Please model this.
Amino acid sequence: MPQEGLPFSASLASQRDTLVKKWFDGMVQAYPESTSGFLTREKDPFRNPVGHTLKENLSVLFDGLVGPKDVQSVTPELNDIVRMRAVQDFSAGQAVAFPFLLKKILRRECAADISRDPGAYSDLEARIDSLALLAFDLYMKSRERLFEIKYNEAKRSMFMLQRRQNNSL
Amino acid sequence: MKEENTPTPEQLVSIDFEPPRKSWMDPAVKFRKGTYCYSGVAKHVKYLDLPNPREWQPTDSDWKLPPDWKKIILDGMKERLEKYRSFRLFMDICVRCGACADKCHFYVGSGDPKNMPVLRAELLRSVYRRYFTTAGKLGRLAGARDLDEGVLKEWFYYFFQCTECRRCSVFCPYGIDTAEVTMIGRELLNLVGCNINWVIEPVSNCFRTGNHLGIQPHGFKDSIDFAADDLEEITGIKVDAPINKKGAEILFIVPSADYFASPHYYTLLGYMLLFHEIGLDYTFSAYASEGGNFGLFTSHEMIKRLNNKIYAEAKRLGVKWILGGECGHMWRVMHQYMDTMNGPADFLEEPVSPVTGTRFENAMTTRMVHICEFTADLLKNNRLKLDPGRNNHRRVTFHDSCNPARAMGLLEEPRYILQSACNHFYEMPENTIREQTFCCGAGAGLGTDENMEMRMRGGFPRANAVKYVHDKYNVNMLTCICAIDKATLPTLMDYWVPGVEVGGVHELLANALIVEGERERTTDLRGDSMEQSGAETTDA
Amino acid sequence: MAAFYSLILVLLLSIAGYFGGSAAGTFFGIIIPYAAIAVFLIGLTARVLQWAKIPVPFRITTTCGQQKSLPWIKYSRLDNPGSGLGTVFRMALEILLFRSLFRNTKAEIKDGPRLVFSERKFLWLAALAFHWTFLFILLRHLRFFLEPVPGFVLLAQTLDGFFQIGTPVLYMTDLVILAALAYLLIRRFSDSQVRYISLFADYFALFLLLGLVLSGIALRYFIKTDISGIKELALGLATFSPALPAGLSPIFFMHIFLLSILVAFFPFSKLMHMGGVFLSPTRNLANNNRMKRHINPWNHPVKVHTYEEWEDEFRDKIRAAGLPLDKA
Model:
């Protein structure tokens, strides 16, 4: 519940758990129906690495967005999510669109806060946009990494062939 | 196709779309780049006398199936239902309790519901019901569906998206083994010429040259000689590595990647140094130059065709028994199939360690011993001098490879060796090791680069557990006893947990092994400095 | 939809039993039960024989623990048996305690401070509770078919009513089986994974069992049933001198009709897992593959690439590499 009198960021911080949960639920819905239940329910991080990675890191992203620090500070956590989505059944756009989902949730859940302090909200939107751009950079890096690792793997599989060739030169 | 159209901003933002509520019985497979393997190349299919060699790809709409393909598949099913109790039983008794659902690494990593083991099997079961059971005449209501090209394509997609790791079978109350279902499924697909090149080419190479990589005898010799030279450089000792030597006591079989690829190669150096130190009378074979057997990923017949050379060569060379190197699916074949298919091995002797005199009671009739059993016995009898400090730059964890774990139970032997040879050994979380180990995501012939996205998804549960010990204990080396692992785990680590290298158990053993007459080692077998890097100052 | 259809079907069957009994008592009370039992026995036997006839070409044990190898390594006798005796114990654990399903429950690391009861523990518990109480209830029912009633049946009855609650005494098993079935059914609806994989037959079996249990409960606790009449019929059926006593309640006909359907459905359905579990090759074989040779009765010959052929093909290269040749 939005609280009267609290500054915008503090009010958001007080609703952190609810908002992060909604964000998580929204992301999970993009997976097939029979899977979203599993991603939400299974608590063991090793049996459910996808759900766990989303849940753990979304909270950190949220804190990073609401908090005073630079958005860049959450790069490792953002990378954990994006790296995972880069190899799942998503188009590039779908893979990195999740920060925008938070905007939608905020507009719906925190309308009162927003109308009280529209300036603070548009600042936050700008931060969300930077997060999305950062996500896109990281997505591209992950995709490039996929090509690199293919190349490295091919090299390792021809290890002796290369050495023998070098030797005969 | 949909994903190639540019989505509108609305579509992109509103990712909370309703997922399809369709029944799983409507086949809908999209062959998207990165998630499937290329088809078997005609010349290899032809060389092996397999049916329907042709040019085709899974993305083609016309798969150029033989005109009577349906009959071929159904006849093939009938034959197998009468030959394999496992197949018939696993088609009949599943109660769909869902205990297996989230046990598959592909499901856990991708979320595709047809990767739940129960559904993977239902893809075949639905056709079984339709054509082989009374209730199936009722059609969909009875969970039965007609065999059509859509169903066949779905089989191809999902049966080549199962690494036959058998993890689900551990949790099934009836022991239903998806690997068995997938194996039969792939046999059926092979009957109409649907197979993947990353399996068929190695099989064809292996049939011809003796190994998956198609290395001919002189190439084999070169590699082994190279390894001997490398060892001399590192230790100052010239080791002897005989090939095709008649009358040797032991025939030593390794997967071909051990003498061709990295990081497998360092494990080969490890074996050779160990055998030198204990003065083992052994021989490699350039004919039986492959322990691995991609026949396992093709058909039971192909397992037997490729495996034949092992006993044949042991007999020709007149050895007493066979020793096998670090390889996963090779050991499923050696342990569960070889003796039945190509035995009895009455021309061999019961295996006894020439160093310790230990009789390997567990290998009395197959007469083939796993290198980890052999080495663990040497260590227990104090026949090896080790300096585990030489591995101090490695903070080690052990990945149980699927087949040694779930088709043998070889769990303690490699751990005993590692704990003797290393000072820093850490286990991954309990439900990701031993019989519950997560697959590398690239076994059963799926370790090809065009399938990279699927591999990264399937390997995610494994990588996630490695990341845990990497973060918590600074683990920087993932050891394993499987050639496919050694080929694909480095790639998995590169993507998910950079900073973790992959190595073999005997590589670390040989790093620590004090060899008589060696010069002081300045590097490990990889040529890496043994100095500890800065990250690892504290020890738990 | 599958759930809905199966519910409708079970309701129709219940109604048929309810009204059929008074309209055609002999048919519903005698002919159908006999027919159902015949289908059950013949079907079950045929199915098991069919499985048993199919060879087990390979010993494909799924090992779930340390193998028996070197004598100083402690091996896992129950999860990776190295001998026939160990396998008997493994199977006993599997069949009596659902060992593999229990394995499911071992998840220790939980996030958050809440104590999370794994949903899976309930699957194991409900499955175990259902199967054991079903057996217990079957045993109790023997009192209808046997005269004099054997001691173990009386004992089962006494134990079941141990708490002496109400008249007639409340059987614990009735509560437990109802709870277990309800859980298994709710799970099929509420767990999206399980809902996705569930077929008509899965719901049908559950609804049928629920109908059977509910009608039984109604007979015992809510309707004044003529027990002596039921016993007369049951004894008659058991001794092959069936006679239909007067005054049997329609609910009783419903009960016996649903039972007949269940019994006749059994051999054609997944309920055959009862027989199949004993035959599963990944569980009922010892992991002694390298100790004792397993024979495949149809071990067909295959085309191989012999050493001679190999040497012929690569002779020059073998010679050039300095490797020995059989035929120089």
Observations:
- The radius of gyration of chain B is 24 Å.
- Strands of chain B lie at 250-253, 282-283, 321-324, 368-370, 396-398, 477-480, 501-504.
